Amino acid sequence: MQKCDITGKGKQFGHNVSFSLRRTKKTWKPNLQTKTVIVDGKKVKLKVSAAGIRTLKKKGLLDSSGKAVATPVAASKK
């Protein structure tokens, strides 16, 4: 399913409207990427939107190159 695991963003529905105002159905899909994040010492694959990746970087779970960073919880257990 097209849904972000972090932000919950999903498909949106609407119409394409031509110059003659004819309407055809259209869906907009979120920009999803598959990222592997380390949570409690385990690798977890997430489907994350571009906005979700920015959130993970802000929280310190991903570094600037998009690689997973060990969480403080996982680092303290070692």
What do you see in this structure?
By secondary structure, the chain is an alpha+beta fold. It is 21% helix and 36% strand. It is built from two helices and four strands. Strands 1-2 form a two-stranded antiparallel sheet. It has a two-stranded antiparallel ribbon with strand order 3-4. It starts with 11 loop residues before the first strand and ends with a helix. The model is unreliable at 73-78 (pLDDT under 50).
Measured as a percent range, the helix fraction is 10-25%
What gap, in angstroms, lies between the N and C termini? Answer: 36 Å
Strand order of the main beta sheet, please? Answer: 1-2
Number of strands: 4
User: How large, in whole angstroms, is the Cα Rg?
Assistant: 18 Å
- How much β-strand is present in the residues? 35-45%
Which consecutive residue ranges, at least 5 long each, have pLDDT under 50? 73-78
Number of helices: 2
Structural class: alpha+beta
The dominant shape is elongated
* Mean pLDDT, all residues: 83
Largest sheet: 2 strands, antiparallel
Order of helices and strands, N to C?
EEEEHH
Quick take:
By secondary structure, this protein is of the alpha+beta class. It is built from two helices and four strands, in the order ββββαα. It has helices at 50-59, 72-77; strands at residues 12-17, 23-28, 32-39, 42-49.
Features:
78 residues; 2 helices; two-stranded antiparallel ribbon; single chain; 21% helix
Describe how the helices and strands are arranged:
Blueprint: E1 12-17, E2 23-28, E3 32-39, E4 42-49, H1 50-59, H2 72-77
Antiparallel strand pairs: 1-2, 3-4
